[in-house]
Q: What sequence folds into this?
C-alpha cells in the first residue's frame, strides 16, 4: 500500500528510462533513496537462499537451483493445506508473512484472499531438522503497523523478546524459522554473507518476481554485490551516474563494497534494509501521517470506522497532551451525544475489493463502538449494560497500547488440553531458581543453545507442564538484554500501578501539606525533594517513606521554614523487586492491533480462535472466570469486562468496521 513511487520529480530521467528499461509492469521508477531501500528490503524479505536448507543443498554454489524445501510445498490453513506460493524454493520471510500471494492484487492467485503479512496457519510450519520441532510456538502476527511510532518502548514478538526490528531480523535469518539451530549461528552468518557476495543477480527473484520489481537496468547488473555497492564499479565512478539515474540504487549509508565488507557488516546491512521495508508497511493514513521512514503521527483513514469519524467531525487521535484514556473517554461522550450520526454506507462512502463485506458503519457498528469504548469508569448512559472495556488495552487510534497483558489465552489452551484448572497447577520456578538453571527453564539462544524452552512451548497432551508463559521468558532474562530497559520503564503499568492522584497541595502555617488518593492500597511510597525540578529523579533526596492506607489514600506534610530556598516534592512508588515482579509476568502477551483483522486470522497467540464472535465469547468466559479468581495472574482489567450475549453481534460488527482494503 505504502509503496511510494515518485515519478513526477524526474521527468528527464523517465524519458531516458523509457528507452533503456525493459518493460516494467507498473511502468514507473523509484527515484529516491528511501524508495530504493524499501525495494531492496523487500527483495531480501523474499530471498529464499539464506535458509539452512539452501545451505545444505546448494553445496557452496550461491546460485544453485536446488530442489524445493518440502516445507514450502504447501501453506497450512485452518482447513487443511493449499499449494504454497513459494513451492520449489526454500524459506523466506513472506512464507509466514504473506500479503497478496494468494489474494487479490496483481500477484495473487485469487484463492484465499489477501493477508496483512500474517499467514493462514494456527502456528507456522518450520523447516524440518532432527530436533523434533515442526511449528513456531506462536501464531504469525500481522506486520502492518508493527513498528509504528509509539509513546512506549518498541517491543517485538508476542513476548517482547526484541526491542528493535534490526535485532529481530538478524535472529530470524539465523534462527530456527530459517532452519538454523542455535549452535549454528556462526555458520548461518557466514552463509548469508556469502549469498550476498556471490549472487549473480540472474535468479527468478532478481529478474522476474513480482512483475520484475527488483530487476535493475541491465539484468546482468542486478547482483546483490552491485546493488549494495550502489552500482559502483570499484574504480571510483558509478556504472551509472546516480545523480541522473537512481533507479534501484541504495542509500549512501547502506553502501557496501563486497571486496572488503565483513560477514557482520553484510548481515547488519541486510537487517537495516529489511527494517526500512517493515517501516513502510502501514495501514492507510492521511498524507501528513507517518511518512516513508515511519516518522510522524498516523491519521488513519482506510476503514469504515475511520470514515465514520471523518464524516462526523469526530477526533481521529488524541489532542496534544491528551492521554489515550482521556481521548477514548472524550470520544465515547461525543458519540453518545451525537444528535444525528452520519452513517457510512456502501457504495456511497466506499466499497471493499479485498473483503466480501459491505463498507459500512451504521447503528449496529455504533452500538458496538460504544461497548468497545465503555470502561469501568465510563458514565453508563441509557441503561447500557455491556462494558467491553476493550479500549483500556486496545487504545485508539492504533487499537493497541503496545504493551503486555494476560487475557487468559494461554490458560484457555492449556486447560482445554490438560483439564480445567490445570494451568493453575503448573509449577513455575521463581527468579532465583530460574536464573540458577537457565537451561532447564528458559528458551534456547546462541548463548544457551541447549536450553529447553519448556515455558515457550505449544502445550501438548504428551508433555504436561510445558506451556507458553509469554513475557515471563523475557523479563530479566540475561540472554535478552535489549528489551530490559523498556520493560523497566513500563513495569508500573505491567504491575497495574497507576500514578496516585494528588488532590490537594497547600501551605498551612509553615507546613507544606499534600494529600490524595488512588495509590495501591497499603503500598509503599517515597517522598522525594529537590531544589532543582529538572534533576533526574535518582538525584532527588528521599525525605520520607510512607504507606498508603487500605483505601489507597495518602497524606503528607513537611515543615517549611520561612526564607528557605524553593523546594520541589515528588511522590514515588516503590516498585516490586524483579523476584516479586516475575510471577506477575506469567502468560502476558503483547496487545495486537485490531485493524483489518479479517486479513490476519486465526486469532490470539495460540491461533485457536477463528472468528470475531469466538474471541468475544472468549472474553465473556474469561472475564467471568477472572471475577471468580479462576484465572492465573489475570490482568485486573479482565474483571471489568461485562458482556451479555446481546453484545456479540454489535461488537463483532464494530470489529468488522475496522477492516480495510490492505494491498501491497
Ligand atoms: C516460519 C515462519 C516465519 C518466518 C520465516 C518469519 N516469521 Fe516473522 N514471525 C513469525 C511468528 C510465528 C511470529 C511471532 C513470534 C513470537 O511472538 O514468538 C513472527 C513475528 C514477527 C515480527 C514481530 C511482529 C510484532 O508485532 O511483534 C516481525 C517484525 C517479523 N516476524 C518479521 C519477520 C521477518 C523480517 C522475517 C524474515 C527475516 C520473518 N519474520 C520470518 C513467523 C515467521
Ligand atoms: C487487559 C487488556 C485487554 C482487554 C481489556 C481486551 N483485550 Fe483484546 N487482546 C489483548 C491481548 C494482550 C491480546 C493478545 C492475547 C494473546 O494472544 O495471548 C488480545 C487479543 C485480542 C484479539 C485477537 C487479535 C489477534 O490478532 O489475534 C481480539 C479480536 C481482541 N483482543 C478484541 C478485544 C475486544 C473486543 C475486547 C473487549 C471486549 C478486548 N479485546 C479487551 C488485550 C486486551
A:
Amino acid at each position: 500500500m505504502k509503496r511510494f513511487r515518485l515519478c513526477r520529480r524526474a521527468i528527464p530521467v523517465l524519458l531516458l528510462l523509457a528507452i533503456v528499461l525493459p518493460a516494467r509492469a507498473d511502468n514507473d521508477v523509484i527515484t529516491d533513496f528511501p524508495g530504493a531501500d524499501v525495494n531492496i528490503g523487500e527483495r531480501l524479505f523474499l530471498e529464499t537462499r539464506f535458509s539452512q536448507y539452501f545451505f545444505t543443498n546448494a553445496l557452496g554454489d550461491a546460485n544453485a537451483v536446488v530442489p524445493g524445501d518440502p516445507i514450502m510445498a504447501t501453506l497450512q490453513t485452518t482447513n487443511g493445506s493449499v499449494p504454497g506460493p513459494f513451492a520449489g524454493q526454500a524459506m523466506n520471510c513472506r512464507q509466514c508473512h504473506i500479503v497478496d500471494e494468494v489474494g487479490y492484487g496483481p500477484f495473487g492467485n485469487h484463492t484465499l484472499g489477501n493477508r496483512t503479512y500474517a499467514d493462514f496457519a494456527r502456528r507456522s510450519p518450520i523447516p524440518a531438522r532432527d530436533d523434533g520441532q515442526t511449528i513456531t510456538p506462536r501464531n504469525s502476527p500481522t506486520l502492518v503497523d508493527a513498528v509504528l511510532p509509539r509513546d512506549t518502548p518498541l517491543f517485538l514478538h508476542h513476548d517482547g523478546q526484541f526491542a528493535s526490528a534490526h535485532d529481530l531480523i538478524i535472529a530470524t535469518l539465523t534462527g530456527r524459522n530459517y532452519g538454523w539451530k542455535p549452535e549454528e549461528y556462526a555458520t548461518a552468518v557466514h552463509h548469508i554473507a556469502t549469498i550476498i557476495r556471490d549472487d549473480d543477480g540472474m535468479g527468478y527473484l532478481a529478474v522476474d518476481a513480482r512483475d520484475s520489481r527488483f530487476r535493475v537496468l541491465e539484468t546482468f547488473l542486478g547482483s546483490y554485490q552491485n546493488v549494495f555497492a550502489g552500482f559502483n564499479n570499484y574504480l571510483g565512478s558509478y556504472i551509472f551516474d546516480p545523480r541522473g539515474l537512481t533507479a534501484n540504487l541504495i542509500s549512501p549509508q547502506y553502501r557496501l563494497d563486497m571486496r572488503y565488507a565483513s560477514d557482520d557488516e553484510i548481515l547488519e546491512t541486510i537487517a537495516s534494509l529489511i527494517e526500512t521495508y517493515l517501516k513502510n508497511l502501514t495501514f492507510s493514513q492521511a498524507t501528513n501521517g507517518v511518512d516513508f521512514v515511519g516518522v510522524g503521527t498516523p491519521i488513519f483513514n482506510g476503514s469504515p470506522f475511520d470514515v465514520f469519524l471523518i464524516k462526523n467531525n469526530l477526533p481521529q487521535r488524541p489532542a496534544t497532551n491528551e492521554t489515550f484514556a482521556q481521548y477514548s473517554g472524550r470520544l465515547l461522550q461525543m458519540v453518545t451525544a451525537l444528535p444525528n450520526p452520519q452513517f457510512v454506507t456502501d457504495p456511497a462512502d466506499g466499497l471493499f475489493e479485498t473483503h466480501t463485506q459491505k463498507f459500512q458503519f451504521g447503528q449496529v457498528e455504533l452500538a458496538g463502538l460504544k461497548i468497545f469504548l465503555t470502561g469501568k469508569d465510563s458514565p453508563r448512559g441509557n441503561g447500557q449494560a455491556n462494558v467491553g472495556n476493550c479500549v483500556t488495552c486496545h487504545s485508539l487510534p492504533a487499537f493497541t497500547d503496545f504493551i503486555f497483558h494476560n487475557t487468559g489465552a494461554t490458560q484457555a489452551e492449556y486447560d482445554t488440553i490438560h483439564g480445567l484448572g490445570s494451568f493453575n497447577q503448573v509449577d513455575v520456578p521463581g527468579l532465583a531458581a530460574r536464573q540458577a538453571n537457565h537451561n532447564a527453564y528458559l528458551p534456547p539462544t546462541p548463548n544457551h543453545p541447549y536450553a529447553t524452552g519448556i515455558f515457550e512451548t505449544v502445550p501438548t497432551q504428551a508433555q504436561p507442564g510445558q506451556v507458553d508463559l509469554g513475557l515471563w521468558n523475557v523479563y530479566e532474562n540475561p540472554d535478552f538484554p535489549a528489551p530490559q530497559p523498556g520493560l523497566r520503564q513500563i513495569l508500573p503499568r505491567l504491575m497495574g500501578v497507576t500514578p496516585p492522584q494528588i488532590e490537594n497541595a497547600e501551605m498551612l502555617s509553615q507546613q507544606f501539606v499534600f494529600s490524595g488518593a488512588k495509590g495501591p492500597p497499603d503500598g509503599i511510597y517515597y517522598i522525594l525533594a529537590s531544589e532543582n525540578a529538572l534533576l533526574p529523579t535518582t538525584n532527588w533526596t528521599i525525605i520520607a517513606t510512607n504507606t498508603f492506607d487500605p483505601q489507597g489514600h495518602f497524606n503528607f506534610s513537611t515543615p517549611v521554614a520561612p526564607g528557605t530556598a524553593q523546594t520541589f516534592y515528588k511522590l514515588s512508588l516503590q516498585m516490586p523487586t524483579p523476584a516479586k515482579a516475575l510471577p506477575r509476568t506469567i502468560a502476558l502477551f503483547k496487545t495486537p492491533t485490531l485493524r483489518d483483522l479479517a486479513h490476519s486470522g486465526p486469532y490470539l497467540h495460540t491461533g485457536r480462535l477463528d472468528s470475531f464472535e469466538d474471541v468475544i465469547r472468549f472474553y465473556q468466559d474469561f472475564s467471568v472466570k477472572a471475577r471468580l479468581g479462576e484465572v492465573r495472574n489475570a490482568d485486573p482489567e479482565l474483571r471489568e469486562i461485562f458482556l451479555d450475549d446481546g453484545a456479540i453481534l454489535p461488537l463483532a460488527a464494530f470489529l468488522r468496521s475496522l477492516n480495510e482494503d490492505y494491498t501491497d
User: Anything to note?
Assistant: The pocket of heme C (ligand 2) is lined by residues 388-390, 392-394, 405, 407, 409, 589, 591-592, 594, 597, 600, 603-605, 615-616, 619, 635, 637-638, 641, 651 (CB under 6 Å). The chain has a mean pLDDT of 89. Residues 499 and 519 are 7 Å apart (CA to CA).
